[in-house]
Amino acid sequence: LREKGITSGTIGFGSGGMTVPNQTLSHMRERLTQIAPEYTQADTVFLGMELEESWMKAAGIINSYPDLVAIYADANVSGGQSIVKAAEQAGRDDLILMAVDESKENLDLLEAGKLDALMVTDLYQEGYQSAQILAKLIAGEETEWHIELEEKVLTKDSDLTYYKDIWNRTA
């Protein structure tokens, strides 16, 4: 935001998680309070996972905060699509839009410049760690319920080949 000359305003939050605020958003809010106290943080809105419902709720975020400067949505596939559609419908091409999840739809929106950023995890590690946990559970062993995976922030200038290749192989 600061790089674009935006020095104040409200940041909106949309979540697809079943609990609001969820753990990721809690960590993000804490960190934003530390590094960017000049921005107001709006209440988290539960977007849901259905695109139409999610889009209407994202539009509600935009309409509720005239000084809105950015929206972060972690609602997987519907989050990126809904905040982009809501911003376009409202004529708000000035908003910074960030979503979570390397879905094909989100990658396409990022590549087209409609999303400014996309937070992703290493899909190989997601699958590998899941298999490790499953093997331990099958063997009757105890296992951690939560594993931290490295997250990356992608922009339209990032090399998306790895993520695009995954979707091309599963299509």
Describe the structure.
By secondary structure, the chain is α/β, with parallel strands linked by helices. 44% of the residues lie in helices and 20% in strands. It contains 6 helices and 6 strands; from the N terminus they run E-H-E-H-E-H-E-H-E-H-E-H. Strands 2-1-3-4-5-6 form a 6-stranded mixed β-sheet, with helices on both faces. Helix 4 (104-111) links the parallel strand 4 and strand 5.
Structure keywords:
single chain; 171 residues; alpha/beta; six-stranded mixed beta sheet; 44% helix; 20% strand
SSE blueprint and pairings:
Layout: E1 9-15, H1 23-35, E2 39-46, H2 51-64, E3 68-73, H3 76-90, E4 96-100, H4 104-111, E5 117-121, H5 123-138, E6 151-154, H6 161-170
Parallel strand pairs: 1-2, 1-3, 3-4, 4-5
Antiparallel strand pairs: 5-6
Helix pairs in contact: 2-3, 3-4
Shape: globular
Q: Which stretches are low in confidence, meaning pLDDT under 50 for 5 or more residues running?
A: none
| Estimated structural class | alpha/beta
Give the strand content: 15-25%
Task: Report the helical percentage.
Answer: 40-55%
Helix-strand sequence? EHEHEHEHEHEH
Supply Rg.
Answer: 17 Å
| Overall number of strands | 6
Q: Reading side by side through the largest sheet, how are the strands ordered?
A: 2-1-3-4-5-6
Main sheet?
A: 6 strands, mixed
Gist?
The protein has 171 residues and is an alpha/beta fold. Strands 2-1-3-4-5-6 form a six-stranded mixed beta sheet, with helices on both faces. Helix 2 packs across helix 3 and helix 3 runs parallel beside helix 4.
